[in-house]
Amino acid sequence: MYKIAISDLDGTLLGPDHRISVETKKSILNWIQDDRKFVIATGRHYIEAKHLQKDINEPIYLITSNGARVHDKQGNIIHAQNIDTAIVTEVCQTQFNKNIQVNLFTDNEWFVNFIIPEHMEMDLGAGFHCQQSDLTRIDSSKAIKIFFWGEPELLQPIYEMLNKKYGSRVNLTFSLDKCLEMMDANTNKGTAVQAVLKAKGLRTEDAIAFGDAMNDVEMLSLVGKGILMANSQKALCAALPNAEKTCSSKEHGVAVMLDHILQG
């Protein structure tokens, strides 16, 4: 019996409107009421995930910034990993294509080199908004993650440059075709899930996980059953060709699978 379910947000738990549907909320609550655990694992900031936790109306563990932070049900940090300060400083001083938005998360703030309307469309209603700033003036030691937003053909050269320059010192992953994320080398959702399982005294075999993008691959590979959404990135499907699939996020795929497991 699976005792814990971990789910990504965008493209997985959230629908096209960037909200958790009524059907999915009901399934999550049924899962929890059956004495099982539910965890959110997202690339989004803790402040946004915390807002969604209130929407579910149940205290749960939160894995955020792709695993750079893990908070327990009481909001205490049980796992934290920032990016190397020297790397952050160098990246913030780098001149990228003018159409590339550079984003930097700290524990309490979200800084960008310029603001774009697309991020407003993805807002979760948490009141957490980006601030246009001179990134070279941000305290590099506080950087949780950096991500780059732009057209795929502009992001690929950045990926190649960062990978060549920093290699094993960072973790680079595409959470969306238009979003390249950079964290510390030891930061990913898989290591964060291990921290949660340890805190709860559970094994990897006790866990199922849901995801749709390459920033989910370590998590999906780690657990007893990794489940891909029907709308998953082609790269993720290629990386995990034998993984089970559920319906798309639009069709409440997480809820469908949770209900199926509960019904035995």
The figure for the number of domains is: 2
CATH topology of the largest domain: Rossmann fold
What would CATH call the class of the largest domain?
Answer: Alpha Beta
- What is the spatial order of strands in the main beta sheet? 5-4-3-2-1-12-13-14
Radius of gyration in whole Å, from Cα?
Answer: 18 Å
Q: What structural class do the secondary elements suggest? A: alpha/beta
Give the overall form.
globular
The end-to-end distance, rounded to whole angstroms, is 9 Å
Q: What kind of oligomer do you see?
A: single chain
Please count the helical segments. 10
Overall mean pLDDT: 96
Number of DSSP E strands: 14
H/E element sequence:
EHHEHEEEHEEHEEHEEHEHEHEH
| Name of the CATH architecture of the largest domain | 3-Layer(aba) Sandwich
Range of helix content = 25-40%
What does the largest sheet look like? Answer: 8 strands, mixed
* CATH homologous superfamily identity of the largest domain: HAD superfamily/HAD-like
Pick out the low-confidence regions.
none
Strand content: 15-25%
Topology record:
Blueprint: E1 4-7, H1 9-13, H2 22-33, E2 37-41, H3 46-56, E3 61-64, E4 69-71, E5 77-80, H4 85-93, E6 101-105, E7 110-112, H5 117-121, E8 131-132, E9 145-149, H6 152-166, E10 170-176, E11 179-184, H7 189-200, E12 207-211, H8 217-222, E13 225-229, H9 234-239, E14 244-246, H10 253-262
Parallel strand pairs: 1-2, 1-12, 2-3, 7-8, 12-13, 13-14
Antiparallel strand pairs: 3-4, 4-5, 6-7, 6-9, 9-11, 10-11
Helix pairs in contact: 2-10
